[in-house]
Design brief:
By secondary structure, the protein is of the alpha/beta class. It folds into 2 domains: 130 residues, 3-Layer(aba) Sandwich (Rossmann fold), CATH 3.40.50.10860; 139 residues, NAD(P)-binding Rossmann-like Domain (Rossmann fold, 3-Layer(aba) Sandwich), CATH 3.40.50.720. Strands 2-1-3-5-6-4 form a 6-stranded mixed sheet, with helices on both faces. Strands 9-8-7-10-11-12 form a 6-stranded parallel sheet, sandwiched between helices. Strand 1, helix 1 and strand 2 form a beta-alpha-beta unit. It is globular.
Length: 285
Amino acid sequence: MAKVLNFKQELTGCFGKPVSENPTQVMIEAAYRHHDLDWRYLTIEVDAADLSAAVAGAKAMGFVGFNCTIPHKVAVIEHLDGLGESASVMGAVNCAVRRDGKLIGENTDGKGFVESLRTLTDPAGKKVVIFGAGGASRAISVEVALAGATNITIVNRSEGRGTELVKLLQDKVKVEAQFVKWDGDYSIPDGTDVVINATSIGLFPDVDARIAVDVAGLKAGMVAADVIPNPPETNFVRDARAAGCKVIDGLGMLVNQGVIGVEYWSGISPDPAVMRKALEDVFSE
């Protein structure tokens, strides 16, 4: 009996701009190979003005799903067919999933972050400071609140976005939250348990950039986290390590949210160690 040949690959990908520095493809395709999936993950630069066309194209070409990164996590919502529960609460999407011919927006960022955080501390009962009020901050703050954090401070340069996020946290997840306008070096309050950089400050190629924070407020035993995966060791990560903080680099969140994404798309639970090693190999070159 002749062997049936099938040259069709399932397609997934990432839409963003800029996107050339995004290493997600490395870990996702490593997971596909490890689990014998003949799938592809395409890293695609999409201008904001072309987002609607890109989503329509993905749907037309039968993409299993795709990730969204800066600046599309909020804007993509109007181009999708529906939202999952977490994305609906956050008002941000980083992962679209094809279900019954429709593209449904989910958010794996916050869940991935909480998985990383739990390797160092239980978020329940913790006081958290988050820099930024964009899509990553929305996802992380909502999931950290749902995991039991008792107080969240949003530090952001734009008052409008910052206060909007605080209101979302207060109204939808019923957590104590406050906004602080980011003007000059921020002083981390005494009693803070977790500090998170959820901005793009330090992202390649601007690797010398530093977030405006008084490093004297970084204390031994505090958990400091950065969402930036490229480079994994930002200046904030270095400063936190030097201060004796327990540190989560951007690879931790990236891998954990990627695991959830692959599960959404394929139904397979990929090996996170395989995915992290693929990233570490790239960054060690």
